[in-house]
Design a protein that fits this description.
Layout (H helix, E strand, L loop, with lengths): L4 H16 L4 E5 L7 H10 L7 H5 L1 H4 L2 H4 L5 E8 L17 E2 L8 H20 L3 E4 L7 H8 L3 E2 L5 E2 L7 E8 L18 H5 L17 H7 L6 H7 L2 E3 L3 H4 L4 H6 L16 H4 L4 H7 L9 H16 L5 H7 L5 H14 L2 H14 L3 H14 L7
Parallel strand pairs: 3-8
Antiparallel strand pairs: 1-2, 2-7, 4-7, 5-6
Helix pairs in contact: 1-6, 15-17, 16-17, 17-19, 18-19
């Protein structure tokens, strides 16, 4: 297929503007380039591996093909932004008095950052080529990772995330749908080979098989999407991860190229690199909103966030966290109260726990919290003489 002069000029404009806006890579694909992806997604939802993310089932038909979302689309431009960390984020897990926040959430919400830049580029595409455009950054039913693979930006690795030869597993994705006809780039091939580093790195066994994930076991799902209590079987394995998990991404051998990449990265906020649990556990709703203003962390709300911090506190062994945990036993949120009970069961002796329970249970009406107290007291019973 011959490329016209006007198409070549438009492509140069897109690449120039993408670089100017701080994107690490840009490529083009067609709306019909991912014919196998819808069936895989349907199987994922049918087996219930999406957990409580009901929106995945509700948008399944529209998500199945870009043209189902917008029939007029002729080309899809996929943009990638590098957010690779300077060090291995897993090292923070050894510092039990600190909180591990997923690398992607340590700065401004990438949705806001990328969407603003993509809208500028989209405007210039229309000014040059006419037609119509739509901008999406993980906020519409679009299968960005398969589209990025078909555009040649990388391939979906065994951890189901995009892997790039140049940037490893650390890429944000955004798309511009356009009515303009653009020559598509060549799709990337799977380069994982026999490697299973990402699968073996998962603390909770969230990968039933290569290229398949059970969200219900994923720490990112449990700490972000999950609105209820964290299942007991996963609490200890969560460690100090209070928002998301980077283990499978960080284990990818292709990251050695990401570390050397010099393109503009979305750098982390200094105060979110190694925050102290003792400071985070004190956040009320107002201070939580202020501290995480502009951050994706803000979207889960204070109660879910403190739930996560309390799980980390219970895993920390830090006696200095006992006092704030005791205070949170009387929190207005049942979710927080229940997590505080579990944390105290890990940080205090049986006698102290029993004394706390006597007062707390007099006023407790929430069945979930009562169940947490009963479970904590039952587990502590054999230790009573040691308390």
């Amino acid at each position: 297929m011959r490329t016209s002069t006007s198409e070549t000029a438009l492509r140069r404009l897109i690449e120039h503007e993408a670089k100017r806006a701080g994107f690490a890579a840009v490529a083009v694909t067609r709306p019909d380039a991912i014919p196998l992806a819808p069936a895989r997604l349907a199987q994922f939802v049918e087996e219930g591996l999406h957990g409580s993310m009901d929106w995945m089932a509700e948008t399944l038909e529209r998500r199945s093909a870009p043209s189902a979302l917008w029939p007029d689309v002729r080309s899809i431009i996929v943009f990638a932004m590098n957010y690779g960390p300077d060090t291995d984020p897993r090292a923070l897990q050894a510092q039990t008095d600190r909180a591990a926040i997923s690398v992607y959430a340590r700065n401004r919400d990438y949705h806001d950052v990328m969407k603003g830049r993509l809208k500028e580029i989209a405007g210039k595409i229309v000014a040059r080529a006419g037609g119509d455009v739509k901008v999406f950054v993980d906020t519409a039913p679009i299968m960005e990772k398969p589209l990025a693979e078909s555009a040649g930006l990388g391939w979906q690795g065994k951890h189901t995330n995009l892997v790039s030869r140049e940037f490893g597993s650390w890429l944000f994705l955004g798309t511009i749908f356009t009515t303009a006809e653009l020559e598509p780039d060549e799709a990337e091939i799977d380069r994982c080979g026999s490697c299973r580093a990402c699968l073996d790195a998962c603390p909770t066994g969230a990968f039933p098989a290569p290229y398949r994930i059970d969200a219900r076991r994923c720490i990112s799902y449990l700490t972000i999407e999950n609105k209820g209590p964290v299942p007991v079987e996963f609490r200890e394995k969560i460690g100090n991860r209070i928002y998301g998990c980077d283990d499978c991404l960080a284990a990818c051998p292709w990251n050695k190229f990401a570390q050397a990449a010099s393109e503009a990265k979305l750098a982390a906020r200094d105060d979110l690199r190694e925050p102290r649990l003792a400071e985070l556990i004190l956040l009320d709703d107002a201070s939580f909103r202020s501290f995480f203003s502009g951050s994706p962390v803000k979207r889960i709300g204070r109660d879910r966030f403190i739930r996560n911090v309390l799980i980390a506190a219970g895993n920390s062994g830090e006696s200095g966290l006992i006092a704030p945990c005791r205070a949170l036993v009387a929190d207005a949120s049942p979710l927080v109260r229940g997590a505080a009970v579990w944390a105290l069961s890990r940080l205090t002796g049986a006698a102290t726990l029993k004394a706390l329970a006597q007062d707390a249970l007099k006023a407790e009406t929430e069945e979930y919290v009562v169940a947490e107290w009963n479970a904590a007291l039952t587990l502590a019973e054999p230790q009573r003489t040691q308390a």
